[in-house]
Fold this protein.
Amino acid sequence: MVNRPLLSVVFVLCASISALSQVVPEIGHPGGGPPLSVGVSYSNYATDLGGRLSGGAFWADWNFYKLPPLMDGFGIEVEARDLNNGQPAADPNLRMDTVAGGVIYTTHFYRRFHPYGKFLFGYGSIDFKSSDPNYSHDTRTMYVPGGGADTRFYKSLWLRVNYEYQIWPTFFHPNQTLNPSGFDIGVAYDFGAFR
């Protein structure tokens, strides 16, 4: 036989749990907007071919705020970079363009300062001086570990300092890799207005 008072209590508890379960807006996180930030930066990289190049970069991060606590902080990043300034005298044609995307993990222990680490996969294009007149451009799939920190400096604006070490496998020879590395300093706008 069904105990009606017990069944009523269970029903009320279940209804109240589902009514209280959503504590943040559906679209994103506590700021109310989408969990998206986009930014632009100045980049300066050692090319691993002799000399440094500078240029601009663009990135966008989508953060997942409704993950279980153990996975909180994971997101997806996409970036594009064009390094075409400051060519060394020995190679005035040197230029590097990259596009990459992958996983980023951002810590949220501090309200205004968020260190992060990331691992991206991408595609790189490079122009260079060569003794072979038919070989002065190449492209590669690349792997990009990196890290840095975002610091809020005004409302939804964040300052980013980023470091990356790029791995372009089998470049020039099967056992040789090209490893450009460098820093980005830029600013991002957080559409969620809270992180």
User: Anything to note?
Assistant: The helical segments are 4-20. The CA atoms of residues 81 and 172 lie 22 Å apart. The longest strand covers residues 137-154.
